[in-house]
Amino acid sequence: MAHDLTTEAPAESIRVEVARPAEIKRATDAARRLAASLGFGSQDCDEIVLAVTELATNLTKHTRGGTITLRATDGRAGIQVESEDRGPGILDVEQALTDGYSTAGSLGTGLGTVNRLMHELEFYSLSPTGTRIVCQRWLRAKNATPFVRWLEFGAATRAYRRQPENGDTFFIRQWEGGALAGVIDGLGHGPFAQRAAQCARRYLDQHFDQSLENLFRGAGRACSATRGVVMALARFNAAQHTVATASVGNIETRLIGGADRNVPVRRGVVGLNAPNPVVAEHPWTPESILIMHSDGLRTQWAWEEFRHVATSAPGIIAQRLLTDLGKIDDDATVLVARTAKP
């Protein structure tokens, strides 16, 4: 029988036994108090509480009960939430993350919600039965202070000519000393392709400061109830003068400047058991230009054909590439990045 108590565990963690629905509130109240004490704002606290609610509800609906353990993270400021059940555990973790999947007649959005709201999420099988879920949410600095934008971005996108919905999208986020940009293409065309692409984009927006490997893994989980997407990402680091690239599927990435090069593509579909992306780091100079585009553009083109726009703003370069290379029978998107002019 589970103890009807909230107890202090080692390392200043808070452990809550959860076996009945009435005990869920003990876990969520403890999570809200700890998150607020660590400096999370009210909206962040609400989202952390929602994630804990889903984990605790999972213990009461799908297992023989277990514990929710809360503590401050080591190193980077944040909160860690652990859920450990007493069996039978989760047989297929990735399937359980799919929105709409349930073994108890519920809406089936619990673990998918945790994946979206928490910044990192890991699963561990316990012997002989049971599952341990560990997730973290980081305390991010508020971006109230203006900063110098050291990169310029531009993008151009359009839908397949017979569809009002665009199955392509792009992502751009810049902060002090860093940036993340990418192109996402939902499989096929129309509203279902658009839904898949926007699902991946929302995940990036909430998790932009995570590693490229974690972004692909989390986006894959988020998109598992959709058609899936192909995606390429680039993370820029001002202090190290580098750009790291990663892709799954046929999004083309080119780096112009110095030795022009195409970034290798790993085949697969994010959301449909995609392989891990190959992450490569490249030097970034004041003369560098990064170009990403979906397969709605012809791939057989040479930068020499467009050198007359090389000094133009990234948005103009992107529009020129889309106009000259875009196919009429597919969604098409181009993203361009370069160092900002003084």
UniProtKB/TrEMBL annotation:
GO terms for molecular function: protein serine/threonine kinase activity. This is Putative anti-sigma regulatory factor, serine/threonine protein kinase. Keywords: Kinase, Serine/threonine-protein kinase, Transferase. Pfam families: HATPase_c_2 (PF13581), SpoIIE (PF07228). SMART domains: PP2C_SIG (SM00331). Residues 152-339 form the PPM-type phosphatase domain. It comes from the Bacteria. InterPro entries: HATPase_C_sf, HATPase_dom, PPM-type-like_dom_sf, PPM-type_phosphatase-like_dom, Ptase_RsbX.
